[in-house]
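Here we describe the complex-level prediction in full. Unlike the single-chain runs in Section 2.1, the three entities below were treated as one system.
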Amino acid sequence: MLRAVLRFGCVVMVLAIGAQGRAGDIPQSERRSGYDMMGPETKAMQDDDTANPATLWVLEGETNWNTKATNGKSCADCHGDASASMKGVAARYPAFDATRGQAIDLEQRINICRSERQNATPLPYESRELLALTAFVARQSRGMPIEQSDSRMQPAIASGRALFESRQGQLNLSCAQCHDDNWGKQLAGSVIPQAHPTGYPIYRLEWQNLGSLQRRLRNCVFGLRAETYPLGAPETVALEAFLMWRARGLPMDAPAVRP
Amino acid sequence: MKADPTIDKGRRDLIKGASALACGMLLLAVRNADATPASMQGAIRNIFGTAEIGRGRVTLDIPSLVENGNTVPMTVSVESPMTATDYVKSIHVFNEKNPQPNVIGIHLGPRAGKASVATRIRLADSQKVVAIAQTSDGSVWSGQVDVIVTLAACVEGL
Amino acid sequence: MSGALINVPARAKRGQVIEIKTLISHVMEPGFRPSSIGVLLPRDIITEFVCTYDGDEIFRADLYPAISANPFITFHTVATHSGTLTFTWTGDNGFAVTEHASITVE
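The structure predicted for the assembly as a whole is:
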């Protein structure tokens, strides 16, 4: 309650600053990862694999990768060595699933594999097992540039852009107003990042836990006092697709640490 | 250390909303006896008794402005040759505004080689953090820092 | 899952001071947080972490709720001889994890 009032007060100031109209997309050359905006101690936490808490999930994911599921197949049985087969995969998700005719994100892709190829039950969102697998897969894309060049993804990206630019919630703000127009400024003591999802799943200091992009988006939407989309909703995937397209070319640094 | 059950719901919501940090959300506003500089002194006395606490030799390395109070990197080091006859026996870290005054109690010996330990701690508010070390000759030294803890924006338990 | 990650140099020179880094998965529930329906979540933390070098204690820490989740602790020791380092974490609700790491000292 107090936090909402504090944030609203800050937000009113931010809006007053940006009242003259939208600045538009961030120019390509000015795009920076959230990593660049963190303090040196937090960067150090991310840079050292032996100190990054997300490593615990990566190691668990590696074990899961090699564990046989209900029908006796493990991820490794089809995909072999993840460092080869999964290289670049997380960097180009969400991706278009031709069978379903729609965009899907990495978590959904893993669950499709589980139910269709491994005869196993899909893993719940934000479950330890699913986070471990996505962390392990995403780790294989570290350093690689984000890609969203599949033309079939355009409808999802366009729909995600519309969501990003539309005002929502009781605070009646759009994502763009903070993350395109006011990045780099401070909101309640924290620097507003440009919101490029280069590091997901992230170990967020606030959560003291690993979490997906979907979880982070739910936090943002809830912060605007808007209704969050159901888990796995197409709107969330569309927003993820747009954010990844917006971040195209930036290197992946998953699994990252963020405040 | 228990929440006062007589707080009415409206105030409870306000208190709950006022802090989303890991330590003592409800209890901060209640200003429980433990969350004060006096209780920190009490905790220090519990461990060090009436020993005279000198200032110096102990360095607390904590960012002066932390990005999130839930996970604050902290390194505590004590100047000492760390030989068999002159070494750091223990380092205790205290805080003044968390619900509990103790943070960590570290026990070393001459085999440590270096009296420097790093970890990550929780700070529930802007406050002083104090580190007190006892050396093998019985003397006690201390160091402290003032840390500013701000809330992260758009903080939810989702 | 109580995964632990330990970083000990595989080799060291006799007398060299080495840094040991440890990270363990644990929620470290402080015991002061209310759940979403206002019920106090009970404390569930690691209370002690001990490292022994071929049986001799070289480091011990008493942990309190103020230690962040997934405790990360680094410390130093003198590499005296080749042997095994044993790391033990114990805590509330019978939590007990032991891990080992070898070091070759030349």
